[in-house]
Amino acid sequence: MTDAPLQALFEVLASKLGSSAYPSSVDADVARPYTVFSWAGGGRERMRVRAKNARYTISVKRVADTLEEALAGNETISAALDDSGSQDYDPRLPSHPDWEITTVTEDREIFLEEAFEGAVHIYHSGHQYVFTMERRN
Amino acid sequence: MAAINGNNAYLKFGSTVFNAYWTKELTYNPSVDTEDVTAGSGATHIAREAKLKDNKMGFKLLYDDTAHAAEIADVDIGSKETLIYGPESNVAGKPCFSGPMILTDVKLSQSVEKIFLAYELSFVQAGAPTKTLEGGGTF
User: Which CATH number applies to A5-135: 3.40.50.720, 3.30.470.20, 3.40.50.12500, 3.30.2000.30?
Assistant: First the structure.
């Protein structure tokens, strides 16, 4: 059975971003810093009659105890993802058997300073990324 | 009976079937100009007759990386081929347009914003069609 496009995208992101990256949400007891990626918009896209396409916007951010760590993590994520699709100038994403990620584009910036457990401040820094995808068959 | 919303069109120009690559919209535009034939003194209303029938068509083709050569084999400006169009596929009995058309204009646009590439093709009539939608032509 063919993977759903969001399943394929999350598998690729988990592989690319490493063991401290989590899909959708993170338990409160996970040690910081970590990366979290989550659906922000999009879905299947109608481009032609006999092919399946999708376009997703995914929020990807680094969560850390210090501003410096969060901002540095944002840059690491950007270096890993921006313009990394198979049709971009620097393809470098892992391949998925069912879906080809053709373009990745860095979009709106994410920045949040969060009061955590009352007194502790933690920092979220990242971007939304737009992924265009086409099913391989 | 149902209003057609479907996109299962059949589209062929020359020897190439474009069903898999057309995108966005397709336009089919038969038309006729008229001639003023008002005669006689004291005429109060204009009279017109139809002139020769004409037709224009246009559609967009996705730029597909693996199938590009086959996809554009017959897409060359000045090409005069038979264009066949069926809004509901090419199943026997379904409506059909078939007639000689000349490809007069090809436009390809690319954007740094990563919008998908598509050829925009424009055709004009090159002779009397053998089948028309408005004339009840079928496959």
Answer: 3.30.2000.30
